[in-house]
Amino acid sequence: MAMSGGNDDGSPMMEMNTTPLIDVMLVLLIMFIITIPVQTHAVKIDLPVDQPNNPPPIDPVVNKVIITPENVIQWNGEPITLQQFDQLLEQSLQLPVEPELQFQPSPTTRYLIVDEALASIKRSGITKFGFVGNEQFRQFGKAPTPAG
Q1: Secondary structure of residue 134 in the 3-state scheme
Q2: Residue 131: which of 139, 121, 141 has the closest Cα?
Q3: Mapping DSSP to helix (H, G, I), strand (E, B) and coil, where does residue 27 land?
Q4: pTM given for the model
Q5: How far is Cα 141 from Cα 148, in angstroms, rounded to an integer?
Q6: 23-72 confidence digits (pLDDT tens)
Q7: Are 99 and 69 within 8 A, CB to CB?
């Protein structure tokens, strides 16, 4: 420890050595400065994201779901995926008045696609639901053959 030599007469020194105290205080100050979070001056804005497959709009009165012979689900005439179909069903329930959902599968569509679509409709909780075009199924086992 460093001590100043005041008088050489051997009397005790009356001043306290503050160098170690200052060293400790400087180390603590540096530690506090390091641990303080960095202040950022940023304004957070949610910008719209460009989605290449924007879902078709929801008609507030009647929405028609068609499943084509090529096993494509169409919402009001626009092709969509099964995930988009689930989102559109949820969005239609958010409207003040629930729109009617008309379901028209093609007679030659794979049953699995129709079953998945019906399961999505049931899970969504849609209450205004109906089948349209049932006259094409009038004679059991006599489905029209696919064209082409």
Answers
A1: helix
A2: 121
A3: helix
A4: 0.54
A5: 20
A6: 999 999 999 888 887 777 766 777 667 666 666 667 677 889 999 999 89
A7: no
